Amino acid sequence: MTATTSTSPSAASLADWVEGARPRTLPAAFSPVAAGTAVALAIDGFDWLHALLALLVAVALQIGVNFANDYSDGIRGTDEDRVGPMRLVGSGRARPRAVLTAAMVCFGIGAAAGLALVVLTAQWWMLAVGVAALLAAWFYTGGKHPYGYYGLGELFVFVFFGLVAVVGTTWVQALAAPPAAWTAAVGIGALACAILVTNNLRDLAGDREAGKRTLAVRLGPSGTKALFVGLVAAAVIAAVLTAVFTTWWALLALVSLVFLVGPVLRVLDDNSAPGDLIKVLKLVGIGELVYAVGLLAGVLIARL
C-alpha cells in the first residue's frame, strides 16, 4: 500500500472540511433570520421555535450550497487556479463523491426543518417555495447549464437569501408579510449580493479564463465595482424605510456602515489586488450580520 500525499483525496482533515463548509459565509444564513424575526417581533408575531427552525433551514442550505459549489466547480476544473479559500475537490483533498454527499446531507437537513415548519404552520403552499430553494441551491453551479455561470447568481441570491429568507422567516412566525418585511429583505438581499459580487470580482480573471460568465465577467471591473457600491447604498435606504415602518431604533442597522465603508473604499481602489478582496468578503459578511442584529436590537429596545 502506498502512502497518501498531503493532496490525496484521503488526506482531508476535519479542519479541511470545516474550511470547505466556508464558515465565513454563514452571516448570509443568520442575517435574514434575524431580520425576519425582528419584523415578526415588531408586529407581535414572534415564535421562538419557528425562528429556530427557520435558522436551521438557512444554515443547512448555506453550507449545502457551499459544498455543492465545491463539488460542481471542482469536477469542471474551474477551481484549479483560485485566489480565495481552499476548495476540497479542486485541491484534491477530498473525493468529489464525498463532497457531493456532504451537500446532499445538508440539503436533507434543511428540507426536514422546512417540512417541520410547513406542518407546524399548515402553510402547505410553502412546500413549493422549499423545492424552489433546493433547486436554486443545486443549479447555481450544478447541472449542465448552471445559472451561476451565466451571470444570474446575484439575482437568485437576492431572491432566496433576501426576499424569500427574510419574508419567509416573518411569515412562518406571524403569518403576515408587512411592508417592513419586504424592505428588510431588500436590505439583507442587497448585502448578500454584495458578498457574491466581491467574490466574483476577486475571481474575475480566473472565471473569465475558465469560461465562467459571472456577472462580474460580463460587467467588467468598473461595472462590478459600481454594482457593489449601489448594493451597499440600497441597503442603507432599505434600513431607513424599515425604520419608518417599525421604529426609529431600527436605524441601529446602520452601525453596519462601520464595517462596510472600508470595503467600499477597498473595492473602488484600482490598486487593490484580488487577494485584498478576501478581507473585504469577511467585512461585508460581518456588516450584513451587524445590519440584521441592529434591526433586531432596535425592535427589542423599542418594546422595552
Write a short abstract of this structure.
By secondary structure, the chain is mainly α. The chain is built from 11 helices and no strands.
What does the model show?
- The chain has 304 residues and is mainly α.
- Helices cover 70% and strands 0% of the residues.
- It has helices at residues 14-20, 27-42, 48-76, 96-121, 126-139, 153-174, 179-202, 204-210, 215-245, 257-268, 277-302.
- α7 (179-202) packs antiparallel against α9.
- Belongs to the MenA family. Type 1 subfamily.
- It is a multi-pass membrane protein.
- Keywords: Cell membrane, Membrane, Menaquinone biosynthesis, Transferase, Transmembrane, Transmembrane helix.
List keywords for this structure.
1,4-dihydroxy-2-naphthoate polyprenyltransferase activity; 304 residues; single chain; transferase; Farnesyl Diphosphate Synthase; transmembrane helix
* Category from helices, strands and their pairing: mainly alpha
Tell me the radius of gyration: 19 Å
Please count the beta strands (DSSP E, at least 2 residues each).
0
Strand content: under 5%
The largest sheet, given as strand count, sense and whether it forms a barrel, is:
none
Helical percentage: over 70%
CATH hierarchy, class: Mainly Alpha
Number of domains: 1
Number of helical elements: 11
What is the mean pLDDT? 89
CATH topology: Farnesyl Diphosphate Synthase
Shape: globular
Uncertain regions spanning at least 5 consecutive residues: 1-7
Give the name of the CATH architecture.
Orthogonal Bundle
Order of SSEs: HHHHHHHHHHH
* First-to-last CA distance: 67 Å
Protein name: 1,4-dihydroxy-2-naphthoate octaprenyltransferase
Catalytic activity: an all-trans-polyprenyl diphosphate + 1,4-dihydroxy-2-naphthoate + H(+) = a 2-demethylmenaquinol + CO2 + diphosphate
GO molecular function: 1,4-dihydroxy-2-naphthoate polyprenyltransferase activity
Pfam family, one: UbiA
